[in-house]
Write a structure and sequence with these properties.
- It is built from 17 helices and 14 strands.
- The strands form three sheets. It has a nine-stranded mixed beta sheet, with helices on both faces.
- The chain is globular.
- The chain is α/β, with parallel strands linked by helices.
């Protein structure tokens, strides 16, 4: 969740949505994203809307406290019930992200989930995920989460190499994420993800291979691997600008991606989104697929984004301002936009092209179709699916995904 919020129209004080957004809502999948904006320390590359205790001191008073945050977020879940109405609509996915959600007590996370269950109901096969910092959980904590209804967990591993973690300002000990996978399995978690980052200054090809091998040795059923992006305003960006560490390199990123694809596919992991691999369809992150397919989700928490029926909105960023709005009985929304049919078409192309199933060629306009034929001839799209009416990226196309999608949209 990037720290900057877009411009938009004001959100009504009661959070009401246009009737068009709710039309047919009962037939669309619904997910919840629950944002926990707290971190013990700030990672040097992070541009998300998160806060350490020092950053919050004196800026939000008791309203910004971690101790009562779960109560505040539950208030927004109840607001969501009022806004979305009484039509039966079970929640298909819940994803607790951050920040570091596991800085809260396990009971707090379970209470937040319980509010979603009580207000909406959960689908019998609902996917319930939380992110976790490896140093912020232990077997008892994981057992409490599993007993409380969580069935998927995502650990931030980033790298198996201490010098790479040091550049990223990650505080966990190498080997701890892999141990967490075993502890999560012992607690009864069905699905476990490890997040990796490649292209960190000072990382070598061998370092990256070692990280992949360590992740695979732990036995998760899902691995995410993201290229490091240096965001303006972060500590890492300042260090690069001062010449303390080298700038990341696109060619290095491409080489590391190829290493990831080779290593993960050889171990039985199939890509289903450009940066995500799973051992089976059941291991795929259904919540993220809601985003990528333009479904409905409610994002609760400071700075969280939501989308329902073509209306997108986002909350105020600061935990104090967020809590104050809800305490006053008002929506914490900071702004919103109503997407046009063209907006939604473009977003489908942008997001669905990144998926293994690709995007229907019927969504492309004349210029986009011409671009797709060029991409096919250049080996960026797979021939078989193209003949069946879908644009699906080849491995080379995945390396150039951003450029390909720009051409198809234009």
């Amino acid at each position: 969740m990037p720290s900057a919020l877009p411009d938009g129209e004001p959100v009504p004080a009661d959070g009401a949505l246009p009737a068009s957004a709710l039309a047919g809502a009962a037939d669309r999948p619904l997910g919840f994203y629950l944002h926990v904006p707290y971190c013990a320390t700030r990672c040097g590359y992070c541009d998300f809307n998160t806060y350490t205790a020092t950053e919050l001191r004196g800026t939000g008073g008791v309203l910004a406290s971690r101790d009562n945050y779960a109560d505040t977020l539950v208030d927004e879940v109840r607001l969501a019930r009022k806004v979305l109405g009484d039509d039966p609509r079970e929640v298909r996915t819940v994803f607790v992200g951050g920040g570091t959600p596991t800085l809260l007590a396990a009971d707090d996370l379970v209470r937040m989930l319980r509010a979603v269950r009580e207000e909406f109901g959960l689908a019998p096969d609902a996917e319930i995920t939380t992110e976790a910092n490896p140093e912020s959980v232990d077997p008892a904590y994981l057992a409490a989460l599993r007993e409380g209804g969580f069935n998927r967990i995502s650990f931030g591993m980033q790298s198996a190499k201490q010098h790479v973690l040091r550049i990223l300002d990650r505080t966990h000990t190498p080997g701890r994420p892999e141990a967490c996978v075993a502890e999560a399995r012992a607690a009864g978690f069905d699905h476990v993800n490890l997040d990796l980052i490649y292209g960190t200054p000072g990382e070598s090809d061998d370092d990256w291979r070692a990280s992949l091998d360590a992740a695979l040795g732990a036995g998760p059923d899902h691995v995410s691997a993201y290229a490091l992006i240096v965001e303006e305003g972060t500590q890492l960006a300042r260090r690069i600008r001062r010449g303390e560490v080298p700038m990341t390199d696109d060619d290095v990123h491409a080489d590391r991606y190829l290493i990831a694809e080779e290593t993960l596919s050889a171990a039985g992991y199939d890509w289903y989104e450009v940066s995500n691999w799973a051992t089976s369809d059941a291991g795929r992150c259904l919540h993220n697929e809601l985003y990528w397919r333009g479904a409905d989700w409610w994002g609760a928490g400071p700075g969280a984004h939501s989308h329902v029926g073509g209306v997108r909105w986002w909350n105020v960023k600061h935990p104090g301002a967020y809590a104050a709005a809800l305490a006053a009985g008002k929506s914490p929304g900071a702004g919103r936009e109503i997407l046009t049919d063209e907006d939604r078409r473009v977003e489908r192309v942008l997001l669905e092209l990144r998926l293994r199933e690709g995007v229907p060629l019927s969504l492309l306009k004349e210029a986009g179709l011409a671009a797709s034929r060029r991409a096919l001839s250049e080996g960026l799209l797979e021939e078989g699916p193209y003949g069946e009416g879908r644009a699906v990226l080849t491995l080379r196309g995945r390396l150039l995904a951003d450029a390909v999608v720009r051409d198809l949209v234009d």
